[in-house]
Write a structure and sequence with these properties.
- By secondary structure, the protein is of the alpha+beta class.
- The longest helix is centred in the C-terminal third of the chain and has 19 residues, at 810-828.
- It has 6 domains: 2-38 and 166-197, Phenylalanyl-tRNA Synthetase, Chain B, domain 1 (2-Layer Sandwich), CATH 3.30.56; 46-161, OB fold (Dihydrolipoamide Acetyltransferase, E2P) (Beta Barrel), CATH 2.40.50; 209-405, Phenylalanyl-trna Synthetase, Chain B, domain 3 (Phenylalanyl-tRNA Synthetase, Chain B, domain 3); 413-481, Phenylalanyl-tRNA Synthetase, Chain B, domain 1 (2-Layer Sandwich), CATH 3.30.56.10; 497-593 and 606-730, 2-Layer Sandwich (BirA Bifunctional Protein, domain 2), CATH 3.30.930; 745-832, Alpha-Beta Plaits.
- It is elongated.
- A 7-stranded mixed beta sheet has the order 31-35-36-42-41-40-39, sandwiched between helices. Strands 15, 17, 18, 25, 26 and 27 form a 6-stranded antiparallel beta sheet that branches. A 5-stranded antiparallel beta sheet has the order 6-5-4-7-12.
- The chain is built from 21 helices and 46 strands.
Length: 834
């Protein structure tokens, strides 16, 4: 919310300066994001001038310029009655007051004004447009200052334009909807600085009356609807400069008088208004929920299919507006509109929030309705807008108005006056509690038992339970008054085993040279298709979001890889091709539990409701993924380049295993998005000998590389970290053995097996038969050739034998080797190569 200080001061006496007010706002919980001074980019003199005469002079380039004489009062050259200025605009007449930048003035963008010869004349200054002064973007013509009252010639034109007024940019918290208005911020400013506040919108909403335009409320989501009609508005009238400047300073542009008035009153009061072309209405206005199949073309020209959750404004022709969000095209106020029906209503915040998110139509109005508009201000705001249209556009207010519905009663509450002291941690006298709450508009009654009976004002729907009132007292006294006491840290149990191991994984990958990334947790069907997933792949069990940020990614992710692929693609588009990135985060799988329950929030849910809430959650395992592209090692003078391949992906996965104290077992697998034959399934051997699958690593499928725009040969890893850590904690713990005191005997064997047999399976078979003397098994050669026969390969292993208590003989080592080879022959069909 942008709030010009001058506008705030119209509603409140603020006895402090800009900096003090900013601190007071911040101490009260209203964070001042920025203080903008529109004139800070201008140095020098921009003064009020009056056009005495001009001559239009056509130029050879087809341009028509005006040679003007402008009276700038005491800034005229000595002995002269005016300054001569060249101007290319044509939207002014003789006698108009205009802003003039004198020679030597520096305008925004570093544009310095100087007396110079142009178009055959010496132009001594410049008549300014609003974009040249940094007050807007309009360059269609220069600014014409108001003539009533006539400004003083030579006086500060920026002051006349309101450009000397600083603007506070404040972002209220979601529970402070009343601060999305000049009225609300002025009230807060007066209270926190000790000033006074005058409410221009104090007229209460009358009891229901149907004298004006007929209105019927057929939905409980609309409590109050006020309709005031203004006729014979001059459609050619424009908003005065002071109103246009305040709208600009608040972040809105001036459009037309009727639209500007509704926007101005909304900013001032916090009550969104909507103006209808009264001549376009057909029959009574009815506020109701949408019916299945209904459509509405909104002001932006979009045809929208409506939902039963949408609250509508309708007449006999059908829907004419999305309540609280955007009006319909058929009743839009045109440039020729002279009869206006002003709507000021209160709509249920949750209903408006659902509607604007569903249709992706955020607006200044929906933003306010979603946070809660003051129920009691609707009639006063409608009448204020009608009076402005009368005073500025010559309109005639119809004395017969309509008020449908009534203001809902605010929730009463009781408060122990000692509670603020107990919660805030310092003494707050009961008298101070009463003083603060009454200044906030709360009705306070002293009850017989010493407690306070409280009823909040209609603009404070955030004041519900006693602790809301405690917060209000703390805010208004100032949170800086709360003493700082650092609590003593209680003894704890430290990190859990899972937390320790997750941190160890991240540290190990970072020390290996990988960079951690954090990506958004959203995904779409198109991305799953680009991964090459089959229709029944579990990763297609996505959880769909009710209000996704993007239609292209309406679901929560089931894999971390798409987010990392997009990161790689973004980096390679910037010529960074040697990448090693990883991410650890949650993925989400739909469980078919159905819609989650929504227990009431006015009391703690029951144990059964809490259990049901957790049961309705999707599965949320924690995954780890990494993507490797380009060169693992660059070209060096002593070594050739080493491109990334599947072995590096497996090595990264093994680093993860080592970080948590386990050795990952791998076996060949085929799974999208990896390349068949270059993909390893990773697992942990449990105590019962079973294999706990924890992930996959390898080279990506060429189709995936192409569809995602990744570098050729890109590799990836994805692991279920929760499954890995659970398996590590279940796996048998290793023994710490003493260093060997006797020499080892090394023997090599070459075994011929089918090409489809994994080398790990052969190694496992050798281990199985080698007995207690076998210390290690290492693969050191793979050979294929015609002499082995079709579909065969030779695997050469180095076997190390050692005894803990003696030096082995060659015969003992050979016997153990023969047992290992026999086991390999039996288990995988290995034949000892001659």
């Amino acid at each position: 919310m942008k709030a010009p200080l001058g506008w705030l001061r119209e509603l409140a006496s603020i006895p402090v300066g800009t900096d003090e007010l900013s601190r007071a706002y911040t101490d009260a919980g209203l964070q001042v994001e920025h203080i903008e001074d529109p004139s800070s980019a201008i140095s020098g003199d921009v003064v009020v001038g009056r056009v005495l005469d001009f001559v239009e002079e056509p130029q050879k380039n087809g341009k028509l310029i005006r040679w003007c004489h402008v009276d700038v009062g005491p800034h005229n050259p000595p002995g002269e009655l005016a300054r001569g200025i060249i101007c290319g605009a044509h939207n002014f007449v003789v006698g108009d007051y205009v802003p003039v930048a004198l020679a030597g003035t520096m305008l925004p963008g570093g544009f310095e004004i100087a007396a110079r010869k142009t178009y055959g004349h010496i132009s001594d200054g410049m008549i300014c447009a609003e974009d040249e002064l940094g007050l807007g973007v309009d360059h269609a013509g220069i600014i014409v200052l108001p003539a009533d009252p006539a400004p003083v010639l030579g006086s500060d034109a920026l002051e006349v334009l309101g450009a000397r007024d600083v603007v506070f940019e404040i972002e209220p918290t979601p529970d402070e909807g009343h601060c999305l208005s000049i009225r609300g911020l002025a009230r807060e400013a007066a209270q926190v600085t000790g000033g006074s506040f005058t409410d221009p919108y104090s007229t209460p909403v009358p009891t229901p009356v149907a004298d004006g335009y007929p209105v019927r409320l057929d939905s409980p989501n609309c409590a109050v609807f006020c309709a005031v009609q203004v006729s014979n508005v001059d459609h050619a009238a424009k908003a005065p400069s002071w109103m246009a400047q305040r709208l600009r300073a608040s972040g809105m542009r001036s459009i037309s008088l009727t639209v500007d008035v509704t926007n101005y009153v909304m900013l001032e009061s916090g009550q969104p208004l909507h103006g209808y072309d009264a001549s376009a209405l057909r029959g009574p206005i009815v506020v109701r929920q949408a019916k299945p199949g209904e459509h509405l073309t909104t002001l932006d020209g979009t045809d929208r299919e409506l939902s039963a959750d949408d609250l509508l404004i309708t007449d006999d022709s059908g829907p004419i507006g999305l309540a609280g969000v955007m009006g319909g095209l058929t009743t839009e106020m045109e440039t020729t509109t002279t009869d206006v029906l002003i709507e000021a209503a209160w709509f249920e915040p949750a209903s408006i929030g659902r509607t604007y998110r569903r249709h992706k139509l955020p607006s200044e109005a929906s933003r306010r309705f979603e946070r809660g508009v003051d129920q009691g201000v609707s009639f006063a705001a409608a009448m204020r807008a009608a009076e402005l249209m009368r005073d500025l556009g010559g309109g005639v207010i119809n004395p017969a108005y309509t008020v449908a519905g009534t203001v809902r009663p605010m929730p009463p509450q009781t408060l122990d006056p000692a509670l603020p002291s107990k919660i805030l941690g310092f003494d707050v006298p009961a008298e101070k509690v009463v003083e603060v709450l009454r200044a906030s508009g709360v009705t306070v009654e002293q009850l017989a038992d010493g407690r306070l009976g409280l009823v909040p004002p209609t603009w404070r729907r955030d004041l519900v339970d006693p602790y809301d009132y405690v917060e209000e007292v703390g805010r208004k006294i100032g949170f800086v008054a709360i003493p700082s006491r650092v609590p003593k840290a209680p003894p704890g149990r430290g990190f859990t085993p899972h937390q320790h191991m997750r941190r160890a994984i991240v540290a190990a990958l970072a020390s290996t040279g990988l960079n951690e990334a954090i990506t958004l947790p959203f995904i779409g069907a198109a991305e799953l298709d680009k991964l090459g997933l089959v229709p029944d792949d579990p990763r297609r069990r996505t959880v769909r979001l009710a209000n996704p940020l993007s239609d292209a990614q309406p679901c929560l992710r089931t894999s971390l890889l798409p987010g990392l692929f997009a990161t790689v693609n973004r980096n390679t588009s910037r010529s960074m091709t040697d990448l090693a990135i990883f991410e650890m985060g949650m993925v989400f799988f739909e469980t078919g539990a159905g819609a989650a329950i929504s227990p009431p929030v006015d009391h703690r849910p029951s144990d059964a409701e809490v259990a049901q809430l957790f049961a309705d959650l999707p599965d949320q395992p924690r995954h780890l993924a990494a993507v490797l592209t380009g060169d693992w090692l660059p070209t060096r003078w002593d070594e050739p380049v080493q491109p990334v391949d599947w072995r590096h992906a497996v090595a990264v996965a093994e680093t993860v295993g080592q970080a948590v104290g386990t050795v990952l077992v791998r076996r060949p697998a085929e799974l999208a998005p990896w390349h068949p034959g270059r993909c390893a399934e990773l697992g942990v051997l449990l105590g019962d000998g079973s294999f706990a699958d924890v992930g996959f690593a390898g080279e990506l499928h060429p189709d995936v590389v192409r569809d995602w725009g990744l570098p050729t040969g890109a590799c990836a890893i994805e692991m279920d970290v929760d499954a890995l850590l659970d398996a590590v904690l279940q796996a048998p713990s290793g023994e710490i053995k003493a260093m060997a005191g006797h020499p080892a005997v090394k023997q090599d064997v070459a075994l011929v097996v089918d090409a489809s047999v994994p080398s790990q399976a052969v190694a496992d078979a050798l281990w199985s038969g080698g007995g207690p003397l076998l210390e290690s098994v290492s693969l050191f050669d793979v050979f294929t050739g015609a002499q082995l026969g079709d579909g065969k390969k030779s695997l050469a292993y180095s076997l190390v034998f050692r005894s803990p208590d003696r030096t082995l003989t060659e015969a003992e080592a050979s016997s153990s080797r023969d047992l290992a080879v026999a086991s390999a022959a039996r288990m995988v069909g290995a034949v000892l190569r001659g």
